[in-house]
Automatic annotation (TrEMBL):
It comes from the Bacteria. Residues 3-194 form the DSBA-like thioredoxin domain. This is DSBA-like thioredoxin domain-containing protein. One of its GO terms (molecular function) is oxidoreductase activity. It holds the Pfam family DSBA. The lineage of its organism: Bacteria, Bacillati, Bacillota, Erysipelotrichia, Erysipelotrichales. Signal peptide: none annotated.
Length: 217
């Protein structure tokens, strides 16, 4: 069964949705029955800075929150990630920036070794959500590439080029052509799931669509 996912690397709902999908697939033992295609959709706005604005400040400027409301929103997101996916994050301290290069690095890794790419994706999430790293920082990206056992010299050459930018923009145009409104956005088999789900909800979606696929074989 094919699954297509559009996600951003700095979106907490994408993180939770991805984690719940991964765990649902593993717990159902479906790893060998799923073809996963992870597409990029960058949600960062230039006015949100390049790691120099706190998420609390961005919440205030973008959503009109007071300082206390922004803190409460970040705390709610932390709690959601813990309760729904057993993830420990500190969203208030995250340092948002463009993550175009991080998306490019993931696509590069997928072309090199998909297993290493998925490990890299976990490292990118940890760096942003738990370690307050800036994903626009190429030194940070190269450190993560090294930790994922990728060829750092090739990764550096890629980042210094324009490789994968067109692929990412194509992902975004495809997303917009679907009239999708937000990420994460899943297509599981033939079913659209336009939001993150809990692990148990995702299990139901997976089993329902696997059953439909078998019935149409």
């Amino acid at each position: 069964m094919n699954i297509v996912l559009w996600a951003d690397l700095q979106c907490p709902f994408c993180l939770v949705g991805e984690e719940n999908l991964k765990n649902a697939i593993q717990e159902l033992g479906l790893e060998d029955q799923i073809n996963m295609d992870i597409k990029s959709y960058e949600i960062h706005r230039p006015e949100d800075g390049e790691g120099d604005h706190s998420l609390i400040q961005i919440f205030q400027e973008k959503d009109g929150f007071t300082y206390d409301e922004a803190l409460a929103q970040a705390a709610w997101i932390d709690q959601m990630a813990k309760e729904e996916a057993d993830l420990d994050i500190d969203f208030a301290k995250a340092r948002e920036s463009t993550d175009l290069d991080a998306h490019r690095l993931f696509k590069f890794a997928m072309d090199q070794d998909p297993k290493k790419a998925m490990y890299l994706r976990d490292l990118l999430h940890q760096a942003y959500f738990a370690k307050q790293k800036v994903l626009a920082d190429r030194n940070t990206l190269l450190e993560l590439a090294k930790e994922a056992d990728l060829d750092v010299n090739l990764a550096r050459q890629m980042l210094e080029s324009n490789l994968y930018i067109r692929e990412i923009r194509n992902d975004e145009m495809e997303f917009e052509a679907l009239n999708a409104q937000s990420v994460p956005y899943f297509i599981v088999g033939h079913e659209v799931v336009p939001e993150h789900l809990t692990k148990e909800e995702m299990k139901k979606v997976l089993l329902r669509n696997l059953k439909q696929e078998k019935e149409t074989e």
